Amino acid sequence: MAKVPSAVVAAGGLVGGYGVARWTRKRELGGVVLAVAGAAAAQQWRRQAGGTAAGALTGAYVAAFAASHPLAKKVGAWPAVFGVAGAVALASWAVADRRG
């Protein structure tokens, strides 16, 4: 079975978390998606790039989630979510996925 790159898992958690929260109107469900994907990505980051890199990427994941809120007020919700998801995916690829 092919491994899903951590960049896809992380970006999918940000986009999927927002999508689930928006479409179900239950922020908690979106938070579950965000947390589960973040934990899965963190495990991959640790395995592929080590604990320090995993900590930095996890911090970036949480910061991206937080940054999407004020950014959404300027550019709209979906563009903000896609923007921060792309940034996290790029960082994840650069630090962890391209090594594997």
Distance from N terminus to C terminus (CA atoms, Å) equals 15 Å
Number of helices: 4
Helix-and-strand structural type? mainly alpha
The low-confidence parts are none
Number of domains: 1
Per DSSP E runs of 2 or more residues, the count of β-strands stands at: 0
Radius of gyration: 13 Å
| Range of strand content | under 5%
Largest sheet: none
- The shape is globular
Helical content class: over 70%
Along the chain, the helix and strand elements come as HHHH
Mean pLDDT: 96
Describe this structure in words.
Keywords: Membrane, Transmembrane, Transmembrane helix. The chain crosses the membrane at residues 52-71, 77-96. The chain is mainly alpha-helical and 100 residues long. It has one domain (7-99). Helix content is 86%, strand content 0%. The chain has four helices and no strands. It has helices spanning 6-24, 27-49, 51-75, 77-95. Helix 2 (27-49) packs antiparallel against helix 3 and helix 3 packs antiparallel against helix 4.
Which short descriptors sum up this protein?
transmembrane helix, globular, transmembrane, mainly alpha, 4 helices, membrane
List the SSEs and their pairings.
Layout: H1 6-24, H2 27-49, H3 51-75, H4 77-95
Helix pairs in contact: 1-2, 1-4, 2-3, 3-4
Transmembrane segments: 52-71, 77-96
Keywords: Membrane, Transmembrane, Transmembrane helix
